[in-house]
Each structure stands twice: as C-alpha cells, then as structure tokens.
Amino acid sequence: MADFLSVLRRLYLGTYNWTVFVGWASVLYNALRTLNGPGYQHVYPAVETPLLLAQTAAVLEIIHSMIGLVRSPVSATLPQIGSRLYLTWGILWSFPQVRTHWLVSSLVISWSITEIIRYSFFGMKEVFGFAPSWLLWLRYSTFLGLYPTGISSEVGLIYLALPFIKESEKYCLRLPNKLNFSFDYFYAAILALGIYVPGSPHMYQYMLMQRKKALSKTKKE
User: Fold this and answer.
1) Are 38 and 4 in contact (CB under 8 A)?
2) How far is CA 46 from the centre of its chain?
3) How many Cα atoms are found within 13 Å in the side-chain-facing hemisphere of 152?
C-alpha cells in the first residue's frame, strides 16, 4: 500500500510540475516574441492567460506543503506564492493602467525563467528520480540575479498602481455597512510595500542558505 501511495504521489507531482512548466514556458515565449515585435507595451495581453493559469495553479503548492506532500515549509511557500498572486490578480489584472509599463516585461521574464528552471527540476526528480547537476546548479543559482529583478519589478508595479487604486476605490469597503467594518485597498497596498522592505532580504537570505546546503551536498556526493 505504501509503495502504491508513493507511486501515486510521484505521478501527481510529476504531472503537476510539468503542466505548470508548460504554462511558464508559454509566458516566456510570448513575452520574448512580443518584445521582438510590437514592444513591451503589448507584453501583458500576450501573456495574460498562461500567466493567470500558471500562477494561480501555485495555490496547490501551499496545500502540498500544508499536508506534507512536499518538504517545503509553509512559512517559506506562503509568502512567495501570496506575493505572486497579489501582483498577478491584485495589481496587474485589477488595474490595466500599469500593464503597458516596461516593468511588466521585467517581471514576467524574471518569474518565467525562474519557474521554468524550478518546475523542470522538480519534474525531473519526480518522474526520473534525479535531476542533472547542471539543472540543480541553475535551480539554486539563477535567483542570485533574477530574485532582485523580480522583486524590484513587483515593488515598482505596486507603486505605479497606487494612484489608480486610490482613485478607483476598487476593493474598498466603506462605513456604514452591515459588517461594521471598513477596508481601504490603497492602504493595504502601502502595507504590502512596507512588508517587502524586511521580507525581501529575509527571503533572499533563506534562499542563499538553501543554495549552500544543496550545492554542498552535491560536492560530497
């Protein structure tokens, strides 16, 4: 029974990883093709569908972590996925005014390269039981440059969206109401920006430790 469940787990995770890999590959391909043609102003509509699907699918990774299907701690998975979902749905999808900025190109290219490497790495491990050393090196090294460009793009797009958030009052809840509760999406966005200040260096430090652990293990082997 244990062997059957192990096979079922690997089959599921292998399918999940390679499916999302295809989504991110589509994002990167469409982004680069658009940059080479119409220009960065048109990148978002070119990548919107695969971006929304691939990024939203990552919600499953929080569940995987919570139920112990993977070893990644929820404390690391939740903020990473949460911030991505916030940018994807709470900023880009909700406020079209920022979609034509060049930071969108920087964001989706940084994200897609990172995720293509990550999902292929885990897809290889689940399907074949191993990943080649060069892919492992990419998995734990490309973030050194792509994490700063991705985070900078995220912060920049939230900042650019602030005046449109304030003007539209989208997702705001004003008093009086039956819940006797108010919510201002503008101040929530400012709070999100504030969280990036201590959160980003902390996450970067965590990934550096993970890199050291993973690469030192391969040297011993």
Assistant:
1) no
2) 18
3) 11
Q: Which of 147, 159, 171, 196 is catalytic?
A: 147
Q: What distance in Å separates the CA atoms of residue 79 and residue 97, rounded to the nearest whole number?
A: 26
**pLDDT > 90 fraction of the chain, expressed in percent and rounded:** 84
Query: CA-CA distance, 182 to 208, in Å (whole number)?
Result: 40
In the set 61, 115, 126, 154, the catalytic residue is 154
* Neighbour tally for 217: CB within 10 Å: 10
Residue 159 annotated in active site: no
Active site residue 29: no
Residue 220 banded pLDDT, cuts 50, 70, 90: low
Query: Which long-range contacts does 86-89 make (Cβ < 8 Å, 24+ apart)?
Result: 86/192, 87/154, 87/157, 87/158, 88/51, 88/52, 88/55, 88/56, 89/52, 89/56
**Nearest C-alpha neighbor of 70 from the set 78, 58, 62, 81:** 62
List phi, psi (to 5°) of 173: -125, 120
Mapping DSSP to helix (H, G, I), strand (E, B) and coil, where does residue 215 land?
A: helix
- Residue 218: the pLDDT is 66
Instruction: Report the distance separating Cα 140 and Cα 118, nearest Å.
Output: 9
